[in-house]
Each structure stands twice: as C-alpha cells, then as structure tokens.
Fold this sequence. Notes:
It is a single chain. This protein is of the alpha+beta class. It contains six helices and twelve strands. The strands form two sheets. The chain has a six-stranded mixed sheet with strand order 3-4-2-1-12-11. Helix 4 (about 140-155) runs parallel beside helix 5. The longest helix is centred in the middle third of the chain and has 18 residues, at about 140-155.
Amino acid sequence: xxxxxxxxxxxxxxxxxxxxxxxxxxxxxxxxxxxxxxxxxxxxxxxxxxxxxxxxxxxxxxxxxxxxxxxxxxxxxxxxxxxxxxxxxxxxxxxxxxxxxxxxxxxxxxxxxxxxxxxxxxxxxxxxxxxxxxxxxxxxxxxxxxxxxxxxxxxxxxxxxxxxxxxxxxxxxxxxxxxxxxxxxxxxxxxxxxxxxxxxxxxxxxxxxxxxxxxxxxxxxxxxxxxxxxxxxxxxxxxxxxxxxxx
Length: 247
C-alpha cells in the first residue's frame, strides 16, 4: 500500500499578490489530487481578515472548509496571531489522527512559524505513520535554528523504524537545510532522489526557487506524483508537490 501525499502553501486562500480570493477553486484542485494526507501552510484558522471578507471569503476556518466530506480527520496548528485572526499549518487525513501537537519554532518574536506533528493510524502496518507539516522562516539564520528544532522534535517524538513524512514550505532556496535534513536526520527528499534536484515551486506562475519539499524516512518506497500546471499556477504563490509513499 502507498499513501498519496500533497503539500501546498495556500497563501490564506488568495492567489499571488492577493488579487483574488480562490479558496473554493483551491478546494476543487486539492480534491482532484485524491491525496490521502494533505499538508497545508498559511491556512486561515479563524475569522477571515477584512480584505478576505470583502472578497467573499468563507467565514469559518479554511482547513474545515477544505476537509469537508473528503478528509474526516484534520488538525490545525496556530502559528501567527494578529488582530484580524490567525493562520498556521494544517494536516487533513483520510486515516485516523491518533494525536497531534504543534511545536512553536518562532525565533525571537519574528515570523510565527511551527511544526505540526500528527500521528496517523495506518490500515496496513502495525506502527503509526508520523506526519510533520513544516513552515520555516524567511531568514537563513532563523531556518538554521528551526531545522535544529525539527531535528530535536523528531528525535524526541518519532521512534526509530516508524514511517515519517515531513512536508511543507521550507523557504530553503539555497538548499542549506537540505544537507542537514538528509545528512544528519536521515530524511530523503522525494524529488531529489527521483530527479537529482528539488522541484521548483516559487513563484507558482514561473517557478524559479525550490522552496517546498517532501521528505520521508523509514518508508518502503517513495516517488513523485506528477501534477498538471493548470490550474495551480493561478491558485497560490506556491506550486504544490505530491508524492506516493510506500508503507
């Protein structure tokens, strides 16, 4: 059996440059991938901002709107809080989420960042599957510290031999975090191992930078799952990534 996983930074439900509110179209595109587990970043968790309301935004949490009727299990980790609401990471799952915890990795009061760790009940293996949704900072010095926090989180909460999937927006445009994640933590990036380099995902309309990743550890197999360019280039500032992970 394999799990199909999808990761995408949904930019709070807006297209690039905040010109259009596209959450309903995003829901359609995400559903079309038929993923078992979805890793989301920049998900609105409460009431939408004034700009979103004026654009006809959904009034509730975006992760519930996206999960509706397809992913019965979901978890949310609040990262950034502001007067109009808050946003963070979310994981949607077709399989039971046994437990979840959001680890705050914000650095010195700068951008709110987090690691959302969910433990999933697999239908085919005795041990759980661990899913960590990641959104790292824009500054390299912050990312270095956040990767160390990711390392310590995995060491403390993911037993050796249990399948681990780490996916999300790493903002690692110079691949410095990648060397640590592979060399010290033992994570394998799906696209790097298939094609020799990470997939370019930003900006979505003309991707130049490899900011988003899907890493696995202790999986039987893994392979990229190709996605069409349309309609994704019009739905966020990041392109999505998908993969099949064998259990």
